[in-house]
Every structure is written in C-alpha cells, then in structure tokens.
Design a protein that fits this description.
The chain is mostly helical. Helix content is about 75%, strand content about 5%. The protein has a domain at about 145-233. The protein has a two-stranded antiparallel sheet with strand order 1-2.
Length: about 230
C-alpha cells in the first residue's frame, strides 16, 4: 500500500512539474513576443534565454546567438553556440560564428567559417570578407583568389560601408575590391610596388571619388616613396 501511495505521489509530482513547465513556456513565449513588439532587445534576449532553458533547441540557441551578434555582443554569441566549424550548422549559426570571430580578432578561425559560408552560397560579399581576412594574415595568394572573384562578380547595386572618417560612407563593392587588390600588390613588395599600387588606387578613385580610405592610403604611399628617394647621409 505504501508503495502504491508513493507511486501515486511521484506521478502527481511529474504531472505538476510538466504542467508548470508548460505554463512557464507559454508565459515566456508571450513575454518574448511582447518584447519583440516593443523593440526591447534585452527583453528579447531574456525571453529567449528562458525559453532555451525550459525547452532547449538548436533553433533557439541560433536565434539567441544571432541577437547577441546583431547587438555587437560577439563573445556572448560565441559562448552561446561555440566557434567550431560544423557542416551540420544552420546558415545562421555559421554566419554568427564567422562574423563574431572576425569581430574578436580571430582571423584564422573566422576564415574557416567564412569559407563554409562561401561553400554554401558563393557570392562577392563573402568573398570580400575572405580576401580581407587573408590579407590580414598575409596569405596573399588566397586573398588574390577572392579579390579576383569579387571584382568579376560584384554587381552594380552592391555596396561596402567604411567608417574610418567621422562621417561613414559607402562605395561600390567593386571599388572596395580594387582597394584590396592595391593592398595585395603593395604587400608583395612594399618598396618596388609603390607605383603599381598607386596606379590601382588612382583607378579606384575614378569610380569612387568619395573613397576617403583610398585617398589616405595613396597619400601615405607617396610619402613613403619620397622618403625612399631622399639621399641617405
């Protein structure tokens, strides 16, 4: 009899727990939707975190990580879904890992994730990220491969934003690739290739006269050239 009573109490406890869990999920689903309606990002994060604890799923993890990434919380995004390259990851997860690893200055790890993105959906925007990251770690042949792809496949409506000036601005993606090409040429020989690099920068300014970073780079290269030409004492 005691065993029967214990079993009944145990089953009642399970049923109550399941009912409570179900009610909590409904509560946080409503909370999450309300935070979305109000545009309350921290509330959205809190709601999704609770939902993922109560009813874990990879989709919820991916969504939470994407929200963190969108808010510039790259470490939190990576802590949510990890940083490993997995062929089974969703497209969102791969993007979050790639962008976040780049943001926390892990270019070699980021390259692997951007390569996965490019493998799934080849396009000039991802090629730009790969070219830029490979330039950072001086893998010039890899960078050149992606630069060539990008120049050929950049569409007229594709833009790239730059933020080095007080006023952010956009240029065509093709012009941005031309700038990377200039950097690639320069890095192959930083003394002998100054003139060739300046020629590419001039061609870039013809199609993007507002490209401030190109103008700054050109000025610095001309300064370097002048310094090299001065006689040594």
């Amino acid at each position: 009899m005691k065993k029967l009573v214990g079993l009944v109490l145990l089953m009642s406890s399970f049923m109550l727990s399941a009912q409570t869990n179900s009610e909590l999920i409904k509560h946080y689903e409503a909370y999450y939707n309300q935070m979305k309606a109000q545009g309350d990002v921290q509330g959205i994060i809190n709601g999704m975190t609770h939902l993922n604890v109560l009813s874990p799923s990879q989709e919820r993890k991916d969504t939470l990580a994407y929200i963190y990434m969108s808010e510039g919380k790259y470490v939190q995004a990576l802590n949510t879904i990890g940083y490993e390259r997995n062929s089974t990851d969703s497209d969102i997860a791969v993007e979050v890992k790639a962008v976040s690893l780049k943001a926390v200055k892990q270019p070699e790890l980021a390259i692997g994730l951007f390569e996965e993105m490019f493998k799934r959906t080849p396009n000039a925007l991802v090629a730009y990220e790969l070219a830029e990251l490979n330039l950072q770690i001086q893998k010039l042949a890899e960078a050149e491969k992606h630069i060539n792809y990008g120049i050929v496949n950049s569409k007229d409506d594709m833009k790239k934003a730059f933020y080095e000036s007080q006023q952010p601005y956009e240029v065509s993606l093709k012009a941005a690739f031309m700038y990377l090409n200039a950097l690639s040429v320069y890095n192959k020989d930083k003394k002998a290739n100054i003139d060739a690099t300046v020629d590419i920068l001039d061609a870039t300014l013809k199609i993007a006269p507002n490209f401030n970073l190109v103008q700054l780079t050109k000025s610095e290269l001309l300064r370097q050239k002048q310094a090299l030409q001065q006689p040594k004492n």
